[in-house]
Design brief:
Strand 3 and strand 4 form a beta hairpin. The longest helix is centred in the first third of the chain and has 15 residues. The two termini are 28 Å apart. 21% of the residues lie in helices and 25% in strands. The chain has a four-stranded antiparallel β-sheet, with helices on one face. A four-stranded antiparallel β-sheet has the order 2-3-4-8, covered by helices on one side. It has a two-stranded antiparallel sheet with strand order 9-10. The radius of gyration is 20 Å and the shape is elongated. It is built from five helices and ten strands, in the order αββββββββααααββ. It is an alpha+beta fold.
């Protein structure tokens, strides 16, 4: 599943391609919404909230999409073509531009006033302007499992959750209540904001199994957090993180 910074980049690309432009064609290739036609509607904006994308029109409708691991949005000129054809889920065209959603895990259309059906369960978005790193967190759950819970904090995935635990010098399996995560969350937020602009820093532990820790030289380890079948991989330094 993409991290919040990657989803934010998708939102910026969609916004640049569609904002303030009138749709001359729309094609939803998902059975539930196949008959919907947004032709003639002007796109107001596209925003990212956690890992969710919302494209809004001046008719009061929103297109909700979620990329998961395989999905992507491709933007370009009005005659843009991409594929594979059978994996296309959405096509939006204006006179000047186009946006095509490929292998999207989720595509829905509803009134903008009903967006909370899609995002109402989410915790604070770590990339939102008003995000407070000092937020209260569940105290009895393991650190990385807590950070990966979108109901607690929206936007963190396995990469940034592992990096946050490293910055906090906390074992991924330590209880959140025993760790001050506010400085780590503030640091990760800044790294994610930099990544949105293409300046992602070098990772300390993510996908560095067996490589030396950049601080102490110990080999980086990996393991699973969470309860199957929803468990996820994580990474840590056994010395720096206990």
């Amino acid at each position: 599943m993409p991290e919040g910074d990657a989803v934010r980049r998708s939102a910026l690309a969609l916004d640049a391609a569609l904002r303030d432009r009138v749709l001359v064609a729309s094609d939803f290739r998902v059975p539930r919404f196949a008959t919907i036609d947004l032709t003639g509607q002007r796109v107001v904006e596209t925003v990212a909230i956690g890992k969710h994308l919302l494209t809004r029109t001046d008719a009061g409708l929103s297109i909700h999409s979620h990329r998961r691991m395989e999905g992507k949005w491709v933007t370009g000129a009005a005659d843009l073509r991409t594929g594979p054809y059978h994996q296309i889920r959405v096509v939006l065209r204006t006179e000047q531009t186009a946006a095509i959603g490929v292998r999207l895990a989720m595509v829905e259309v509803a009134a903008t006033t009903r967006e909370r059906l899609w995002i109402g369960h989410l915790g604070p978005d770590i990339l939102a302007d008003d995000f407070d790193p000092r937020m209260e967190l569940p105290s009895s759950r393991p650190v990385v499992e807590t950070l990966l819970d979108q109901k607690v904090i929206a936007g963190l995935g396995t990469m940034w959750a592992a990096e946050a635990a490293f910055i906090a010098r906390a074992s991924p399996y330590a209880n959140t209540g025993n760790t001050d995560l506010a400085p780590a969350l503030a640091a990760i937020r800044e790294s994610m904001r930099a990544s949105v602009t293409g300046r992602r820093p070098a990772m300390a532990v993510f996908e560095r199994v067996g490589q030396p820790c950049r601080v102490c030289g110990s080999p980086i380890r990996s393991g699973r957090v969470g309860t199957p079948p929803h468990d996820r991989i994580t990474y840590w330094c056994p010395t720096c993180q206990g």
